[in-house]
Every structure is written in structure tokens, then in C-alpha cells.
Amino acid sequence: MTTDEKNADSELARRGEVLKALRQIIQSVDLHSRHLLREHGITGPQLVILQEVANFGPLTVSRLAGATSLSQGTVTNILMRLEKGGLVTRTRSQKDKRQVYIETTEKCGDLLASAPSPLHETFVERFGELEEWEQEMILSALKRLAAIMTPAPGAAPPRKRSRKTVQADETDEATDDPEKDAERFLNPSDALENTSK
Predict the structure, then answer these.
(1) Which domain holds residue 18?
(2) CA 104 → CA 50, 88, 95, 99, 164, distances in Å?
(3) pLDDT tens digit sequence for 57-93
(4) Within 10 A of 152 (CB to CB), how many other CB atoms are there?
(5) Distance CA 19, CA 193 (A)
(6) Are residues 83 and 138 in the same domain?
(7) At 106, which CATH number?
């Protein structure tokens, strides 16, 4: 085996390990979000949005989407359910009628006072036990990974997977919209929002 072939094999092996680690993270996030929904009646993305609005609101949908790294469509859908639940209100700006601001309600304050972390408690505990330099290293690597995985502006969405591929992986849920399929991979808990109506 030549040096080039060995390097190619090593790169393929590293890609496989990266994919495996990503799937483990995605599964963990999904499971914790389902636990939050079952035990507290709220999903991970809903909790993140409520905390963001409570801490920095009133916020517009676009500002909220940017702050939470969720699409505006996903944020809008989540806000509709939160508004129905009496947890947020939407108020049109007096200066610019096109702007709508999101604010939390008193009911939301009560919920957040007793709400668990949007991150799994075990992760929070173990991460807190790490040395500061280890925490910074993990954070830096995750930010770099997120940047690598973010599609370039104007890039075409991934091609829709075949029916056979979908059936082979029961954890993925295909849609008729390639952008939604890509968003589900990047933000698995967003997909949970679409199934928890």
C-alpha cells in the first residue's frame, strides 16, 4: 500500500469516527428533548427560545432565530405553539408595523423557575468538572465544527435521499423538501417540534 493510499484510508477512518460522534450527539440531544416533553411538557428548542426571550427580550423573530441558531420558519412554528400555551405574547411595534416583538408571560416565568437545563444534566455535571482549558478546547472545536457544517451562502441544498436510504435509517425522517431534510440533520430537535403539535 502506497503512502497516498494509507493517507486516504486514514482520512476515511477519521470521517467515519466524526460521523459516529455526530450521530451520538444528535441522538443524545433528541432523547433529552423527548424527555423534557414527556416530563415537563416542553421541548428543548422551546425551552431555549423561552430562556432567550426571558433574558434578552423583547425580541423580533429574526433576532431570536439568529440568537438560537434556528431557522425563522422553525422559530415561528415554535412561537405559535408557545403563544397558544400562554407562554409568550406577540406585539406589533408602534414605530414599524412590520416588526413584531416577542415577550414572555408571567406563566412562562413560573415555568422557567422550575425548568431543567436544555442540556442533559449529566453533560452539565461532567462538563463542569473539566478544567477550564478543556472546556475552552471543546467549545472551540464545536464552534469550528458548526462553521464547517454550515452551508455557504447561496449553496444548493443537499439532494433528497432515496426511499431505500430513508427506510434503511429509521431515525431519519424524510420530507418532500430537501431544505427541511438538511435542517433536520443539522438541528434534529427542530424536527421534534414538527411532530409534537
Answers:
(1) 3-118+163-195
(2) 7, 4, 21, 17, 44
(3) 799 999 999 998 888 899 999 999 999 999 999 888 7
(4) 6
(5) 24
(6) no
(7) 1.10.10.10
Q: What is the pTM of this model?
A: 0.62
Q: Are residues 49 and 64 in the same domain?
A: yes
Q: Are residues 184 and 140 in the same domain?
A: no
CA dihedral 71, 166, 178, 72 (to 10 degrees): -10
Average pLDDT estimate for 155-173: 49
Other beta carbons less than 10 A from residue 33's beta carbon: 26
Which pLDDT belongs to residue 15? Answer: 86
Residues 37 and 68 in one domain: yes
- 190 Cβ contact list (under 8 Å, min separation 6): 45, 70, 71, 74, 183, 184
- Rounded CA gap, 189 and 187, in Å? 6
Stretch among 12-16, 101-105, 153-157 having the lowest mean pLDDT:
153-157
Together in a domain, 87 and 46 = yes
Q: What is the pLDDT of residue 53?
A: 92
